[in-house]
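Dear H.,

Thanks for agreeing to be a second pair of eyes. The structure we're designing against is below in C-alpha cell form, covering all 354 positions.
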C-alpha cells in the first residue's frame, strides 16, 4: 500500500489518521524539510529525503518500494490534494498496474490560516500564485474571476525572493475589482510559530509576505471585529419586535410612513445627511452581521445599528422595496420570515455594492 499522507501545516496539527499511517509504514519518503518536521515519528523506518522539485522522483521511488512489498508513506505538507503529492502521483498512475493507494487528508493552509484569523471563509477559492507550472495569464484570469464572483480567496505561494511578478499582477487585479478597504489576513509560518496580521488590501505590503505565507482575501461582506476576520454566513438571530418597530410597520404597511429623507423628524439626520429614512426601523433587525456597520454592544446582548449607513442609501431602499411586499404582508411576517428577509438583505447588499 502507498499512503499519500498529508501532515498538515505543522507537527502539532497532524491528524490521528496520519500519525497511525506513518507509524505503520516501513518506508517514509518526502521533501527533506517535511521529513525533518516529523523526525520523532520515524524511528526504525527507512527514510528517503528528496529536494524541492523532485516530486516525480519521490513518486517513482514510492512505487518502486511498494512493488518490493513495503508499506510506503509518501509525505505531503498540508493536504495531499491541495497543491500536494496526490496530483503528481495520479498523473503517473496510468503507467502501472497493481498499485494500491490511499490518501490521508491533512489540514491545508486555507483552513489553518482561517482558524487563526477567525471565520473568514464562506464560499471561497484556493489559488496558488506559483507560476512555475502554471502560466501567469491563467493565474491572473482565475484571480479576476474569483474577485468578480465575490469569492473569498486563499492565496498560496504568494511571493518568493525571485518570484514577485505573479503577486504584483494579482494585487493590481484585486485593487481593480475589490474595495481597497477589503480585509486581508496574512498568516506567515516561516519562523515556526505563525505570525498573524489583519490588514486591508490597500495596506498589504510585499515585505509582510513570503513563500510560507497564506493570504486570505476577504469579499465584499468580510469585516473585522475584535481582531478577527469574519465573512458572515447570515444565521438568523431570533428577537422580539420592539413596540416602536411594531407601530412603525403597522403604519408602513398602511402606506402611512415617510418615503425618502424625513427632514421633519426631530432626529434628522440621525446618520449622515442626506439619508433615506424609508426604513427608519430596519426590517432585518437584528441582522447580527457587521458587514454593513452594525455591532453588538458588549455584554448587553443588544445589536446597535448606529454605524450602518447602508440601510439609509437610496439604492438600498429601492432594492428592499422591490421585494419586501413578497415577504411581508403583515407585521408578524417580520418575525416568521426572518430567513427570507436575511436573504433579501444579502441580495440587496450585493446589488448595491460600491
Ligand atoms: S440597520 Fe444595518 S446593521 Fe442594523 S439590522 Fe439593519 S442591516 Fe443590520
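And this is the sequence the design step returned. I haven't edited it by hand at all.
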Amino acid at each position: 500500500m502507498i499512503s499519500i499522507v498529508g501532515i498538515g501545516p505543522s507537527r502539532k496539527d497532524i491528524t490521528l489518521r496520519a500519525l497511525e499511517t506513518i507509524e505503520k509504514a516501513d518506508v517514509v519518503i518526502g521533501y527533506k524539510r517535511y521529513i525533518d518536521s516529523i523526525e520523532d515519528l520515524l524511528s526504525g523506518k527507512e527514510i528517503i529525503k528528496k529536494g524541492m522539485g523532485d516530486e516525480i522522483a519521490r513518486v517513482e521511488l514510492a512505487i518502486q518500494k511498494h512493488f518490493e512489498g513495503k508499506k510506503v508513506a509518501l509525505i505531503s505538507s498540508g493536504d495531499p490534494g491541495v497543491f500536494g503529492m496526490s496530483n503528481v502521483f495520479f498523473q503517473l498512475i496510468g503507467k502501472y498496474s497493481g498499485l494500491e493507494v490511499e490518501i490521508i487528508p491533512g489540514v491545508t493552509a486555507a483552513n489553518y490560516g482561517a482558524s487563526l484569523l477567525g471565520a473568514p471563509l464562506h464560499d471561497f477559492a484556493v489559488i496558488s500564485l506559483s507560476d512555475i507550472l502554471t502560466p501567469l495569464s491563467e493565474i491572473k484570469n482565475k484571480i479576476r474571476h474569483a474577485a468578480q464572483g465575490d469569492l473569498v480567496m486563499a492565496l498560496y505561494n504568494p511571493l518568493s525572493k525571485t518570484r514577485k511578478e505573479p503577486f504584483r499582477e494579482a494585487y493590481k487585479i484585486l485593487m481593480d475589482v475589490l474595495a481597497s478597504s477589503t480585509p486581508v489576513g496574512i498568516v506567515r509560518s516561516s519562523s515556526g510559530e505563525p505570525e498573524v496580521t489583519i490588514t486591508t488590501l490597500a495596506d498589504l505590503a510585499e515585505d509582510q509576505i513570503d513563500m510560507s505565507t497564506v493570504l486570505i482575501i476577504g469579499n465584499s461582506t468580510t469585516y473585522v471585529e475584535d481582531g478577527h476576520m469574519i465573512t458572515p454566513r447570515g444565521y438568523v438571530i431570533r428577537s422580539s419586535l420592539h413596540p416602536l418597530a411594531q407601530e412603525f410597520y403597522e403604519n408602513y404597511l398602511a402606506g402611512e410612513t415617510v418615503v425618502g429623507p424625513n427632514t421633519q423628524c426631530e432626529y434628522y439626520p440621525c446618520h449622515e445627511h442626506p439619508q433615506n429614512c424609508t426604513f427608519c426601523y430596519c426590517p432585518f433587525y437584528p441582522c447580527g452581521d457587521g458587514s454593513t456597520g452594525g455591532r453588538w454592544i458588549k455584554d448587553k446582548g443588544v445589536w446597535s445599528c448606529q454605524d450602518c449607513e447602508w440601510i439609509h442609501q437610496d439604492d438600498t431602499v429601492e432594492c428592499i422595496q422591490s421585494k419586501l411586499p413578497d415577504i411581508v404582508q403583515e407585521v408578524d411576517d417580520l418575525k416568521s420570515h426572518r430567513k427570507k428577509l436575511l436573504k433579501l438583505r444579502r441580495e440587496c447588499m450585493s446589488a448595491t455594492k460600491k
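Two observations from my side: The chain has a mean pLDDT of 95. The two ends are 54 Å apart (CA to CA).

Warmly,
E.
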